[in-house]
Amino acid sequence: MRTVILGVIGSDAHVVGITILERAFEAAGFNVVNLGVQSSQSEFIDAADEHDAEAILVSSLYGHAEQDCQGFQEQINEAGLDVTTYIGGNLAVGQDSFEETRETFKALGFDRVFDSETDPEEAIEALKADLGHRSREEASSEKIQLGS
Ligand code: B12
């Protein structure tokens, strides 16, 4: 079963969104490790390592996600993890243009960025597609290695 690490980053204590996401991802067949609220970057990374997770799903509602996620991708790289990373929620104070917000978090290294209107099914379909794509790439690189 594919494992995802889910949690709310930083000092943020909004728990309802991740509870809904946990249930939706479990119902879709994922093994969800829910770190809960007020999770640090290293808690996400240690859990991903420990559970051999394929994805990290970060939630943030209180408007400080940009600060909380500084250096996160670098820490993931340093830990040698190959994980798909998503972030979602109410990511910026005001959020006049979500496209701008999306670019900010893409620049921080997230593979996909979701707003607070996101239906969990949308994220589930995206993750299935991203992980399926990755499996195919891994399988074909194995074949190339085997054939070489
Ligand atoms: C309930 C609530 C609280 C409760 C939280 C109780 C709890 N333990 O959960 C309390 C009263 C404690 C609270 C406190 C605060 N809150 Co508050 N809170 C809310 C409120 C009204 C609802 C949040 C909620 O539960 N929504 C329902 C769930 C189902 O939706 P959701 O959380 O958005 O999650 C969905 C999506 O966002 C998405 N999603 C979320 N994460 C992710 C991650 C991924 C990867 C994906 C794909 C999708 C995804 O999917 C989820 C499920 O559908 C919102 C306003 C609002 N209407 O959203 C403000 C709101 C989030 N709070 C806000 C603020 C400012 C605060 C405080 C800082 C206020 C203060 N000055 O003290 C504090 C922060 C405290 C802290 N340390 O976190 C602001 C944030 C502003 C911003 N980001 O610009 C909001 C938007 C209110 C506002 N309009 O100003 N809050």
The CATH H-level superfamily is Cobalamin-binding domain
Termini separation comes to 31 Å
Report the sheet with the most strands, covering strand number, pairing sense and barrel closure: 5 strands, parallel
Low-confidence stretches: none
The shape is: globular
What does this structure look like?
This protein is an alpha/beta fold and 148 residues long. The protein has a single domain (3-147), classed as Cobalamin-binding domain (Rossmann fold), CATH 3.40.50.280. The chain has helices at residues 16-27, 41-50, 65-68, 72-78, 98-107, 120-147; strands at residues 3-8, 31-34, 55-60, 84-89, 112-114. It starts with a strand and ends with a helix. The model has no long low-confidence stretch (mean pLDDT 93). It binds cobalamin (B12). Residues 11-17, 20-21, 57, 59, 61-63, 86-90, 93, 114, 116, 118, 120, 123 line the site of cobalamin. Adenosylcob(III)alamin binds at residues 11-15, 59-61, 90-94.
What is shown here, in short?
With 148 residues, this protein is an alpha/beta fold.
Keywords:
148 residues; alpha/beta; Rossmann fold; 6 helices; binds cobalamin
Topology:
Blueprint: E1 3-8, H1 16-27, E2 31-34, H2 41-50, E3 55-60, H3 65-68, H4 72-78, E4 84-89, H5 98-107, E5 112-114, H6 120-147
Parallel strand pairs: 1-2, 1-3, 3-4, 4-5
